[in-house]
Task: inverse folding
């Protein structure tokens, strides 16, 4: 009798485990599907915070936001979440992985700007947004970077995607047509 009970208990545990896994797979947000709003609280440390999406689209974040542009270093989600709160669109990507469906090396991003007068080591004109902070605006720039750089979350599971506050969309195959115009080398 006890062997029969143990077998039924094992079957019940397996059914519950498979059911839980199936529930998680079915309820995972699809690309472009709204995700839960995790709030807008300003904090000074985001270590240990679990967000409702990956990459995060809302939740506790730093009181400083990232200036528009393209960054050649990894920046904490806490800055980008604040940027999205102000209406920015963030394009997240893992530069260690090739963008699928494209053999292009994305070399320049034009964000409604003309080349600046500064030049780079290669002699090419630098392209960047010409936006300056006004009044009590709070953001960081390459000249005023945060003290610590962080890497992408190990759970980052998309080659590239765009984030809007409350939405998450993958767009690896059509990045040139979404939000920003990319110029191939």
Result:
């Amino acid at each position: 009798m006890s062997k029969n009970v143990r077998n039924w208990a094992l079957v019940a545990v397996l059914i519950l485990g498979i059911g839980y896994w199936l529930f998680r797979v079915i309820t995972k947000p699809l690309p472009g599907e709204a995700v839960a709003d995790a709030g807008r609280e300003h904090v000074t440390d985001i270590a240990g915070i679990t967000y409702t999406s990956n990459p995060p689209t809302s939740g506790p974040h730093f009181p400083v936001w990232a200036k528009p542009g393209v960054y050649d270093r990894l920046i904490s989600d806490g800055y980008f979440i604040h940027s999205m709160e102000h209406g920015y669109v963030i394009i997240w990507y893992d530069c260690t992985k090739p963008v699928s469906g494209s053999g292009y090396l994305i070399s320049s991003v034009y964000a409604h700007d003309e080349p600046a007068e500064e030049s780079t080591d290669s002699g090419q004109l630098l392209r960047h947004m010409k936006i300056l902070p006004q009044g009590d605006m709070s953001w960081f720039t390459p000249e005023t970077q945060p003290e610590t750089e962080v890497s992408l979350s190990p759970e980052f599971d998309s080659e590239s995607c765009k984030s809007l506050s409350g939405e998450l969309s993958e767009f690896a195959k059509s990045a040139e047509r979404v939000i920003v115009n990319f110029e191939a080398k």
About this structure: Helices lie at 2-27, 77-85. The two ends are 73 Å apart (CA to CA).
